Amino acid sequence: MADPGTAAWSPFRCVLLSILAVVFLALCPQGAQGAGQVLVLNSYHPGYKWSDDILHALETSLHQFDPELVIRVEHLDTKRNLDQTYIDSLPDCLKRKYAFMRPDLVVAVDEAAFKLMLGRGEEMFGSVPTVFCGVNASPLPAVPPWMTGVREHADLPATIRLMRSLKPNLREVAVIVDRTDTGQAILADLRTVFPADLSLRVLDDLPLPQLAREVSGLRPETGLLFLLYSSDRNGNVYEPAEAMGVVSKASPTPVFGAWNFLMGHGLLGGYLTSGYAQGRIAGNLAARILSGESPSRIPVVVDDVVALEVDVREMARFGLSTIQFPEETRFFNVGQGTRRDILVLHSYNAGFRWTDDILRGITENLANFPGGTELHVEYMDTKRHPEAEFTYLNYLLLREKYRFTKFSAVLTSDDNAFNFARQYRKALFPGAPIVFCGVNYLENPPAMAAENITGVLESYDIVGTVKAATDLVPGARHLVVINDATPTGLGNLKRFEEVRPLLPERLRVEMLQNMSMTRLLERLASLPPDAIILLMSMNRDKDGNTFTYDESCAKIVGVSPVPVFSFWDFYLGAGTVGGVVTSGYHQGLSAGSLARQILSGKSARDLPVIVESPKSLIFDAGVMRRFGLNRRPLPQDAVLINDDAESARYTRAVWTIVILMAIIVLLLMAFLGFYGWQRRKRRHLERTVRIDPLTGAFTRAAFESEMPRTIASSTERGERFMLCFVDVDKLKHVNDTHGHLHGDTYLKEVVAVLRSSIRSSDEIYRVGGDEFVVVFPGCGQVEANRVWNQVDERIRDINREGRLPYAMGITHGCVGFDPQSPQDMATLLRLADLSMYGRKNHQADAP
Question: Is the pLDDT score of 10 beyond 50?
């Protein structure tokens, strides 16, 4: 039977405990309740530059507000995946996934994520505060009280005014846009502000090859505005940079835009909006909400961070000058003078002897480079912090630090930095060649050329070191190998297993791989007298303890009753006997030499990986005396340190290494010089065969070589072209009357007139003394007639000027190539020739 008093107090106690719990939670510091969680719904996919810029700025802003904030990103991939079934399934998927880990705030990046939150947000996450950005919708729909954000703004009127100032005869604007939600929203914005006196031509939903053809035929009075293009009517999906590159290459006019993530891919520029700027604004709004402010009290912000950006490479392509642009213009792709920025990325920490030796070699070799170099030296410190999370933090740091730095070369020391550089090069230093050194193991060194990578493979002589040890200790029957599980140690292990069959047969090998330091020292102390030790690497033990080279070597030699040998120079002088030694300093010199050649204009692809780094037989005479080892078995070229009588031999060995390095460098430079000479000679010969030296037109040999390929390609693509045969009138009369110098001038003037009237994609061939062939890809008779009318008009202008002592004149005949009933080269040439003679006879018969 229950106690009545207890029963009576039970409800009161429950209420009291609830109140105390609420008070306790309210008084707890925020950190004690766990870090806040933000869910970012990214409409697109990783690697899409626009949304990557937004995510980058969001992450930076939010972590500046709270470094412990947990940020989760869901990539909806709606730019590439247009399947409506997939899109319809997203709400249920997200609802189930976050049912038990509801975020404190949601950030919706771009149109698809915004619409998803607007329509199904409460169903998925309840009334979780939401911030949107990258949204173009016009007008912006009413947003619920739990939502605010940044409306994207593109200053299209200012860009059109810029187009008019650069192209005064502008009559029409062709707009490239896709049919995504974002594309149609920005097109709607454009229609509302488009000038009434201009024609608007929308090129939407076209397959990329057709779009390129349309663009290539734009008239001089038409401007080109590239808004968005990620997919076409056939369901093909394109990366923006890919489409931008194709359009820019085909366009006869500068390409303007609205977003700055297309800069560097063929866009001239315009008043551009920035994903990074929008992400920063959205991040600040999110921080205000996480600090307690209600979204309903924060009005939607219109992103007005628009800047006029112009690519100087595109300016040069279209003959534009800086004086044609306003003062506020930011110029993109401007050279930084002759100074070169070089990143030196070390796997380990400053003060680590091996790393310091490599840096000393690199620095010495790059000193006094013409124009100067700026070395940016970074230490990943992965010897003491091997965790994958720490490596990612290195990526975040370098991404922020060097976001605006363009490196001429990236040099890495040791395996971790090399692997890191290969993994993150696209994000951190795109296009920069990589020169590695200190890398212990590489499966296929020649394959590095395809990745624009070269370097110095760390080579060491395990067999030579063990053989030298057995010569000094003839009674040795037991080889104890010490190695760790760092990337260096794993490379050592692969190399050791490869050469194990080459070791003396009398040796029994005991591998002490990745042991705790305590157990390792216990094992070494009990070794029998017939043992010798090979110390390969011991910088981190099985328990996660880290040691410098000096620390680990001192512990090992301090307990070992038998000699310790090694092939690394940093163990010399620390208690090891020595061996066939490799040097970090000389690897740094070699890597610096390769980098110097790259800075001088060589490509890393043409510089083979150096697979044998310099090595020398070096031994410590003091340690040898301690173990009673006789120096007589040592080779003549062996160097003894800590032995005054042998100091001269040591000096000679050092000089030998230097001389060998110099010889290697000289041989490499001679090989590269010969290779370059051969390439230049071959290109000169090809040019001699293809280019007519008098007129600059292509030769008949080039015509006969290239025309079959043109016919086959046009037939395959279903593309027409025009072939025109041109005869220079009365060339023989000019030669006979005025001399061959005037005849040569006549031919050059004719080619100059032709070249000034045709497109850059059209080709001129000289197939005889006074006969030429002009090929117009993608053209029909109407377009060809327009060109010949211009040619005739320019020839009449020259004749009216009277600057030549004779009248110029040409006669042409054209034939169209029909891919539905293709004809061979000889037939086309014969028909064009007949057409030309028919025109010539008609002119002769004319009164």
Answer: no
